[in-house]
Design brief:
Mean pLDDT: 79
Number of helices: 8
Strand content: 15-25%
Radius of gyration: 22 Å
Largest sheet: 5 strands, mixed
Number of domains: 2
Helix content: 40-55%
Strand order of the largest sheet: 3-2-1-4-5
CATH topology of the largest domain: Nucleotidyltransferase, domain 5
Oligomer: single chain
Order of helices and strands: HHHEHEEHEHHEH
CATH architecture of the largest domain: 2-Layer Sandwich
Number of strands: 5
CATH class of the largest domain: Alpha Beta
């Protein structure tokens, strides 16, 4: 990928993102032997274990889905880096995401126990800005609620809190999020249309990613929140 986030043709067919997305019309004159090892291995399994063909095909399809996910992730992370490179002292880039839930009890439990519980909602907004020295600054804004609903109104309230507490307030922003209903809905878009009037902030773009992609920074932050939550619970239960 280029620095500006655009994709370019690569002669090696295994490494050409344009070809992976079905957008490349150029000729590919080379193949990567390392990448081909996976496909050769699957082909050998199919030829030598024909009685397990259906199982192998199912596993093969899952591997292909995983590879497709990784290709999209590389592309989307490249887009985010390109946006960061264009960040100036007057703007900010927001990455927002919901944590499914923070459980106030034991972290070691089965999926049946987990999905049967109600926990706290955690919404995080990471704000990327540049200082006068051209250094990148990152601020994390966590918003908690005992209500497990993750709707447009909680999202809007989170952004309102960030705008009121940012100092200095940016002149323009770009937002990255997944395409869940808590972001991709008419109520939120209607409110966003008024942000310039209310906060004097220009929204230059809102980019919707697939869930779990291009938000590794927020995911790392949520992992730290979980860790400190476990530490607090550990101290709480051992204080009796």
């Amino acid at each position: 990928m280029n620095v500006d986030g655009t994709t370019m043709h690569v002669d090696t067919i295994n490494h050409c993102l344009l070809y992976a997305f079905g957008e490349c019309n150029e000729q590919h004159t080379d193949r990567c032997t390392t990448c081909d090892q996976l496909f050769i291995f699957i082909e050998n399994l199919m030829n030598n274990f024909k009685e397990q063909k259906s199982t192998i095909e199912e596993c093969r399809d899952k591997l292909y889905y995983f590879l497709a996910h990784q290709a999209r992730k590389v592309y989307l992370n490249g887009q985010f880096k390109a946006r960061l490179s264009k960040l100036d002292n007057n703007g900010a880039i927001f990455i927002c995401d919901y944590k499914m839930r923070i459980l106030p009890k034991n972290a070691r439990e089965t999926k049946e126990q987990f999905f049967g519980k109600r926990g706290w909602t955690l919404h995080t907004i990471l704000v990327f800005t540049k200082s006068d020295t051209n250094l990148l600054n990152v601020q994390a804004f966590d918003h908690w609620s005992t209500d497990t609903k993750q709707d447009a109104w909680f999202t809007i309230s989170s952004f309102d809190s960030v705008f009121e507490n940012l100092d200095p307030r940016p002149h323009w922003i770009e937002v990255f999020s997944d395409n869940g209903a808590h972001y991709h809905n008419s109520e939120l878009i209607t409110i966003v249309a008024n942000w310039h009037q209310w906060y004097n902030i220009e929204v230059r773009g809102w980019y919707f990613f697939e869930p779990g992609e291009a938000k590794s920074t927020v995911d790392s932050h949520h992992a730290q929140v979980n860790f400190f939550n476990i530490i607090i619970l550990y101290k709480h239960f051992h204080s009796y």
